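Re: Re: token formats

Sure, here are both.
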Amino acid sequence: MLPKFDPTDQKACLSLLEDLTTNVKQIQDSILEAILSRNARTEYVSGFLNGQVDKQSFKNNVPVVTYEDIRPFIDRIANGEPSDLICDRPISVLLTSSGTSGGVPKLIPLTTEDLEQRMSFSSLYAPLLNKHIDGLSEGKSLIFYFVTRESKTANGLMVRTMVTTFLKSVKPTSSFLWDRLHISPHVITTCADTTQSMYCQLLCGLLERDNVARLGAPFASSFLKVIKFLEDHWPEFCSNIRTGHLSDWITDPQCVSGIGKFLTAPDPELASLIEQECSQTSWEAIVRRLWPKAKCIETIITGTMAQYIPLLEFYSGGLPLTSSFYGSSECFMGVNFNPLCKPCDVSYTIISCMGYFEFLEVEKDHQEAGHDPTAKPVVVDLVDVKIGHDYEPVVTTFSGLYRYRVGDILRATGFYNNAPHFRFVGRQKVVLSIDMDKTYEEDLLKAVTNAKRLLEPHDLMLMDFTSRVDSSSFPGHYVLYWELGSKVKDSKLEPNSDVMEECCFTVEESLDAVYRKGRKNDKNIGPLEIKVVKPGAFDKLMNFFLSRGSSVSQYKTPRSVTIEEAWKILEANVESEFFSRKIPSWELHELHSGR
């Protein structure tokens, strides 16, 4: 467990981080011992260990599992059975993960004690950030958070996202501490109306522009949604500031009371300044121009979020992009000890007290090392990972997960003291599949990254994308939906057909040898297609998933869409279509080299 500390004592916090990354083996052994001794009598643990709580019995007898393996236990708790099926402490909330199981969000158990640990974990990072970025503590944070609708299980257990749980765990008596650190009042960030909340958080940020030391959002995609909202509504913001009157459509009591402390009088000078910046022909560096004292943008930019880095760099005007944490609904795991590194170099050091961590080695072709479906997977301890190898984290937590496969792929890049740090590679997830070919999320992201570079000379940017398999004709083929944007404001989006066809070919050339062989020799895969959709199409896609219970704060554009209602939204917004006109190359030896 994370020891108690004073988050305002920078020296003590940095010393604690040094200790947690030095005494890794001892801390990990004590964490596992504490988890097993606490939970030895639960139905799940006792079924495998029968009272034995030593480390070797744990490794020999407790299986490595996926969500589907433990789902029956979670469903039983959701339906009213006691928490001691899996945990000795009461489960206080079931977190809705951004991942799904059979199209339904996963439900991850969390105790109040574990929640408090995660909140402490978050505050531990601030002193590290202050150490690396001068002047960060002289202002406040404009971090955009949004709650999402919550529900209850049949027995009254709350079902929430992690962000909503975090925000609603701030007690009214301590909300003044939140307001000391954040520009947007806590009362506004917990407004249930996302649109009104976003509007008022932005308005607070504009009114307090000289007091903003950093900006951000949980994910890069959600921060860009906020920038797009600002682009669509800046004249209204200027009107509110110029007149000192809040727009009539803002009616939520929390938003009205929260903004009332900021919008106290007309400020035509500020309104004119914002208007001057926002009305320029390009929105390049708009963040730095509107918030001149900001030191960084803090948001997750690894994994699937890496594709948004060029857009963030375009809007940020050179502000550092800091990717602070690595974690999931299942467990908070690591921090970035070098927050000012290049986005491509971000690695997360595992903090040893947040759970018991093991790692399942996977090969570069995404298979488990020494893959044998009949054999037990081989896992190694945190201190035994090897630099340059790829792993899937396997976590054991105080909230009732035991040897649970998280599903991420991490590459070990080194050690900070005795704690390994990892680069997030992607999800171990097949996003497209035709015949013998399986395209993983990581490989699709790399292919699209290579292709979108062809847009840069034409002042075009890839705003977002997803994909699907079109099997309506033979042979089936991959379809990519691209939403484009221009670096020049109000210019027409007319992508050149030669450029777009070359983008199709570049994606194909970047995919693996199995795909390229299927295209060239076997002819069981048709030419790849890119469909350019209207601006705002991906907002409509997001709204569809939000209507199904997703959260704005945690929403990630799916890299493939299989739900018919979802891809029909995109089809209804297609403006132009392009096919690959060339056949990708392949060599026989590539199939054996794993490329």
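Second one below.
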Amino acid sequence: MDFVIAPSSFPSFLNPDNSKNNILYCYYNNIFNNKENQSRFPVPSSAGIFTLTRFSTVTFSYDHRCPRGCRSRRIPGCSRIKCSRRTDMDSSKSATSPEISKPKILTGPGGYVLEDVPHLSDYIPDLTCHPNPLQDHPAYSVVKQYFVHVDDTVPQKVVVHKDSPRGIHFRRAGARQRVYFDSDEVHACIVTCGGLCPGLNTVIREIVCGLYHMYGVKKVEGIDGGYRGFYAKNTVHLDPKVVNDIHKRGGTILGTSRGGHDTSKIVDSIQDRGINQVYIIGGDGTQRGASVIFEEIRRRGLKVSVAGIPKTIDNDIPVIDKSFGFDTAVEEAQRAINAAHVEAESIDNGIGLVKLMGRYSGFIAMYATLASRDVDCCLIPESPFYLEGPGGLFEYIESRLKENGHMVIVIAEGAGQELLSESMQSMALKDASGNKLLKDVGLWISQRIKDYFSKQRKMPINLKYIDPTYMIRAVPSNASDNVYCTLLAQSAVHGAMAGYTGFTSGLVNGRQTYIPFNRIIEKQNKVVITDRMWARLLSSTNQPSFWNPKVSMEDKGNEEKATELLDNGICGEESPRFN
């Protein structure tokens, strides 16, 4: 017998997407005790989760309880589980710290692992489903196999050996044959949080238009000013006419902010306003907040889908191929690099220094350098460097100036922070989102270069410092990002209407997927300086690695860890997957 882990609930294992297999032809035994309800039974391959060659045993538990702790049946038409009696609740489980649900993991033959996303039926019994209105939509009814098959999953890792296990998979995004919201009862809201990023308005527009044109949803509101807007500001009515041309503008029409995350107040506002679909656009910190909101909603038993759309100009969100706005940021960075190159080559010993965004991850600097081919040196947070001594940055600058008469340096904002004066004090300070406040490495290194050549080498240089940071992130998204934003937004809409919740819509190996929040927030995506992409950069710029002997020895000890990341398909050659 194969053992398949199917946590959460019996309805979730029935797979709400499967219109053909709404009944499990199996015998099951319900076992009840004081702690939990469990069911254990053999399940044939016709269950529709994945193909099995023989009967398997499934073990899972479910607990349909109202927020007050009693067990009751759900009243039809109500968005939460009603209770008939009041019981004491553990005071340690506060609204601001809801209990984290266990991940939904399904396993199959050949080392197949599906990291599934939660579904409303996991904690709300007897949900009513409806045929998807897209089946009668003139634009979609002609599309063959428009609805996603229930067994469709996307592998996280596509480069495997012949004997490798099938590995981790994610549920494929797209429209399902059945939906768990009636279009007339949907009350959706959209919120943008964190820093600006090209494409925010495009995502907002496509969520609104997707709900309106594909599913006939008429009630969509925007939350003004980030998470704080849930309880501190009025909402903004959104419809296709309001959002018609906002994709041509940078920023976000809804406004944004950092911090302001009060889980209890936010969920109270969602419940009081009658909102049942929440679309949250933001980076890793925002998605972490969305995960807590989902857990509180689940704890209260509310019929509310929470969908995230990952946003970060730094491209530091794991698992996904890339984040929207990244292509635009790299393209805009070219303008600053081109300007720096013109300034540098137009004068003797000219140095053009460009600082780009990249607090913890140097993807923008790396890809802008590779795209430009005019850059002589790229400095990122993941690659330590030192200034003076043999093999140091100053020595390399001097040799390049003597050879070419000019040079261009690109530095990410998070690079070299450990070299700045008072670094420990600067690292202790954080913004409202919990990000450490960085010293301006661009200004600092500009002054250090000037001081070195004027005082120690007595060599005249002309350094021009360009900081296009906020110009890059405030522009509208380019054509590539506009298409990507459309796919992300429509995938999120399809998932929410199908009853999925607690997920992020993202691109994995070129396919739209639904990724559970816990995978998105578990770590940050960073440049792996031992993989091929960084080697391509070094061969392009001909810069040294700047590793001093101490760093080199430490890195050797981390080689095994870096290989492990590559094997897991999280970083390295496959992250981001542009090559």
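The longest strand covers residues 37-43. DSSP finds 16 helices and 21 strands in the chain.
- S.
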